[in-house]
Amino acid sequence: MTTAPPSTADLSADEARRIALRAQGFMGAPDRRGGVRGVLRHLGAVQLDTISVLARSHELIPYARLGAVGRRPVEEAYWTPAPAGSSVKDPHAFEYWSHAACVLPVEEWPHFAFRRRAYRARPSWHHELADGAYEAVIKQLRTEGPLTATELGGAKNGGPWWDWSEAKVAVERALMYGEVVCTGRRGWKRVYDLAERAIPDALLRDDLDDMECVRRLVRLAGRALGVGTRADIADYHRLRGEQVDAVIAESGLVPVTVEGWAKSAWADPEALATAPKGRHRTTLLSPFDSLIWERARTERIFGFTHRLEAYLPKPKRVYGYFAMPLLSGGRLLGRVDPAREGKTLVAKQVSLETPGAVGPMARALREAAEWVGCSDVRVERVDAPELRGPLAEALASL
After folding, report:
1. Tens of pLDDT along 166-218?
2. Are 64 and 286 in contact (CB under 8 A)?
3. How many CB atoms are located within 10 Å of the residue 46 CB?
């Protein structure tokens, strides 16, 4: 018989790890009925990024938890603009600044009012705007309907990627202010529309005070993490530590101590009510997955150092451009830097923590290949040369 964690709120390191895995959707049967929307609401935030290797990161997040999911269910879960000519507003999510640029459940729109107010009160910006430029973009959206930055007058001035056009600066500022939302993506370009047209009337409000907003986000972060330190909870939606301190006692989270953790922690009481049980996922994780996006937490829980090296010069990379950690049996057992060449998934560099990781890596590579439509897997380099042969044999047997 499985028992719940002790009521004294003292957790072993292993209990904390399993609680974190369940909270992030990696233990137990996948929620097929909830689908991608269920994953989004469970996590509270899915990070976006421009890098696309096997797929874009926001697609890898539900894949890691549900297995093979199509691009269309992902797009429909994140971006659901009303049909042309329709006044129906039924979005499931919106894009905004949370941990980073994230997709967030639409019902949380009111709870980001504190951040929208902070942006509106910001005294300076990196990009200046000419008088009337902001108003012109709002007027164009109001008149013409949803548009990309290109359709608003061009996204760039012709310089580096950050050399935005005046229209792009204006519409991004309007998004930060909450006057505009992203209702879809065309070739990864944001499609902008007025919030008053895209957000349901019942949610289109900015009257919640800062404390109420932050309290809600602290509660959501605690639920998504299962158990975490003050820094873990603050990092989830990029809150300041003092903001967390001001509300955590009334957030519904409960204080706990975790074996081996130098700092005190807080837990979701529902996570403590029953012991985590069920099967573990074996899968590759996006470097932007919320299970591992905070480096210190990943090292504390899994004893595993994870760092995205895409933005490092090539000579300084240790594990590869987009090294994806391997999760299996509730542990992080290695990494692979993948690529695609036609119908072949190329494992450019494989790093394994132990020989026991060979089988899980082979299964994860084969499953990922099938998901992205590859019929073959080619391994180019294995950091431990003696494991290259066993990995090739394991792949051949699947």
Report:
1. 899 999 999 999 999 998 898 889 999 999 999 999 999 899 999 999 999 99
2. yes
3. 29
